[in-house]
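Handout, tutorial session.
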Amino acid sequence: MEDQDSASDGMNQMEPTQQSLICGLPDDIALLCLARVPRKYHRILKCVSRRCRDLVCSEEWYSYRRKQKLDETWIYALCRDKLEQFCCYVLDPSSPRRCWMPIEGLPPRSLKRKGMCIEVLGKKIYLLGGCGWFEDATDEVYAYDASANAWSEDAPLSTARCYFACEVLNGKIYAIGGLSSKSSDSHSWDTYDPYASTWTSHSDLNIVPEIEDSFVMDGKIYIRCCTSPVTSHVYAVVYEPSSGIWQHADADMVSGWRGPAVVVDGTLYVLDQSSGTRLMMWKKETREWVPVGRLSPLLTRPPCRLVAVGTSIFVIGKGLSTVMLDVGKAGNVEGAMVSSSIPNLSSDDDVISCKCLTI
């Protein structure tokens, strides 16, 4: 019995004691303190200890910061460089320096592809589909965990796609239309359930392959297809999740949707790049498009993409030239909008898509 007791004591001594997040504080109090550390320091916080690293990368950390409204939004841009390779950059819009930083470690197989989409769900960025000169459309999906700063392969699309649209609605990713090896697949869309990690395929003849832009407004997905060079007619359809049906979008609204779009506080804005860069706003009450103002040609480098953080719209163009304007306080001087700019990189990278991720 004495031998068994001594052996038991030895095993107990060998069991590692769990290290506290902050010495002398219960973990729930430590979480309350650590969650207030600004996002730009999370990389350093992960180096403090293994427990801090695991905490910062956890769903608990992500959920707590969102619940307490401590989360911060960064902008991610998918670009193509002069070597025709994809690259990815991130911008902290609240940083005093406000400069774009590269994200390393993109999946090697995706670097040369064209027609890929990116989408954000939770604390992950998803890189979907694409094709190449000697490669058909692929169903591959990669996920970038922004907390862990790591890429991994995710569940493949139901349908191989390239040059398609991606949006998030009701906690699911929608991959819509585009080109595929089968003509019938161009009239379909896939939905991704992150909890089951599975894709489900659907079809509707109102979806056409040539998609140029998309957005979510009032709980519906809108997609705009290529404009006819003969009639200049803009074709767009809208998805109503309650019925699961795609139908033609309102003609008045669609008539002014001739550039990248973004929704801010339920209001639709479009950047008209046909002659300079002019921001337009859709007024639901009067059902008309009204100009907000022009952006200085010295600051923008079309073609541009739009993304919104709060009431601020970021206009991101070639070489990641970035102009920020607060539409809640928008003013103009002789037709030019009052804005601030972020210096562009010393490159001519083309911006393919921009998304926001909040942690």
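The second record follows below. Compare its token runs with those of the first.
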Amino acid sequence: MDDFQDLQHQQSSENPGSAAEVLKVSTRLGLTSFGGPVAHLGYFHEEYVKRRKWIDEKSYADLVALCQFLPGPASSQLGIAVGIERAGILGGIAAWAGFTLPSAIALVIFAFVLQRFDVHNAGWLHGLMIVAVAVVAQAVWSMARTLAPDRTRGTLAILTAIICLLLPSAFTQIVGIAGAGVFGHIFLGGQQQSQQAASLRVLIKRQTAITAWVVFIVLLLGLPLLRILIPSQTLAVFESFYRAGSLVFGGGHVVLPLLQNEVVPNGWLSNSEFLAGYGAAQAVPGPLFTFAAYLGAVMHPSPNGWIGAGLALLAIFLPAFLLVLGSLPFWNAIRGRAGFQAALRGINAAVLGILGAALYDPVWISAIHTLQEFSLALAAFGMLLLWKLPPWLVVVFGVIGGYLMNGI
């Protein structure tokens, strides 16, 4: 253990940094990183690897692999990991805050506008809901190429989608993901060779990592029990968002069905409010998980909107931070194991199925009712998939189209 601490001190002195420095750089990324998680990885590579040389190519690739393996928002987890590597745990917090808060603040302001002016039936708002259809459809199309490229995984994705549609509940999704992981471990182990893990510098003590895992598991298992014992909406919201952040594989788009099944049936907000916020989230930079801030603000009307937004934001991102903190010291040892890679291939196929089910219910059935609305969604889909236009521009197109069809 002394040797490990000596190595930690040596590496820290070779690569000094401060939380303030990390916050400054990550805030600029949070203000300019449009385009979703894949684009975020490119922005991070340009800033952290090429421009500032905080980490090398191999370490960056290893961190990307780790964050793709963990549940939660991959781009946010990558930023947290880079922040930890640069300036310790405070650096990780600073990296998260800088990358997350700009879009979270913008979405909270949108929530206040939605409530203040009573625009729930506005045509431009329905345009945002239609854009959500195009965005989720584009995500399904793109993810299918990598997550289900063969007959076996494609079938697994379709079966998962059917089960989720026929038995819609968060429990069904959790069981589907777990079952797909077991299936992948047993039947998908021979599809590709394990990759050689790159060497990753670790600046976290193993005791700290183990503590993070204990906290993560205690909250995941304990909060549902506490929610039963203590009838509190605040506790219920925190538990729902923490569980969603803990169980989402595949990024921000997949959190949609988990959150929808939690907040709408409980009457915390309407389905139209939910989808309008999801459409607005496409127009801001940063991680899609900041959609939670919008939901928290809508569920807690003024003057408590900021408190509700902060509660939801903390709950959904806390698992990401704990998982990164708990995994960094152990990742080099496990990432090359064929069993983990095989299970992950099955999980990814199930994630695709869940997203496909969400495309129909609630996204499609809540937004598309006429041929004109379908035409607008199809045009937005083409703009995203074929013309590769930025999501914010497609959102503007949807807002204008919704206004022209239905009026303000």
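Points raised in discussion: The chain has 18 helices and no strands.
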